[in-house]
Automatic annotation (TrEMBL):
Annotated PANTHER family: HISTONE ACETYLTRANSFERASE COMPLEX, PROLYL 3-HYDROXYLASE OGFOD1
Protein name per its UniProtKB record: Fe2OG dioxygenase domain-containing protein
Gene source species: Polarella glacialis (Dinoflagellate)
UniProt superkingdom: Eukaryota
Alphabetized Pfam families for the sequence: 2OG-FeII_Oxy_4
Fe2OG dioxygenase domain boundaries: 9-115
Amino acid sequence: ITQCGDLCDRVDLSAQVYPRGSHLLCHDDVIGTRKVSFIYYLTDPEEDWSSAEGGALELYPRAGPGTPAVAPSKELLPLADSLAIFLVEPGVSFHAVREVRGERARVSLQGWLHARSLEETLGFESRQFATLQQILVPKEPCPAVVAAPAGGQEEDSNELSEEDLKVLSEWISPAYLSPQALQ
């Protein structure tokens, strides 16, 4: 962080509460003059947060220009009184928040330190790789999705087989695969 260059006096700060089921998709935080991101965790100091509760800050390496890897390279639990700090750089500072699966909420103060000008932000010349820019400026139209009948199953069937549920349970919380949730 000491290599980030000059900062101005502007600091943005917000409180974040992630109750059970909440998450944040992968992004790089590049908006305006943001230069440094920080997260201070306010979780219960009397009880350590466990990985089973979810809510980890996931840090992703680049898979290519403006593209995060599929899996995170590091996961940081939201431990009480801990601070995460990282540089904001277009198409580089990829991170996400894993789904909160426990009963406790993931609580934090989160914010950004800013550069004096847009030109002084890290990777200014690579802003086209920022996740926000990729959303706002589509490169080309997506091809149409063509429905194809599932092999060997009735086309009208919306029921999931035991095998379907087994495969899905590797990726989706069982709470979302219950018969009540699937209705």
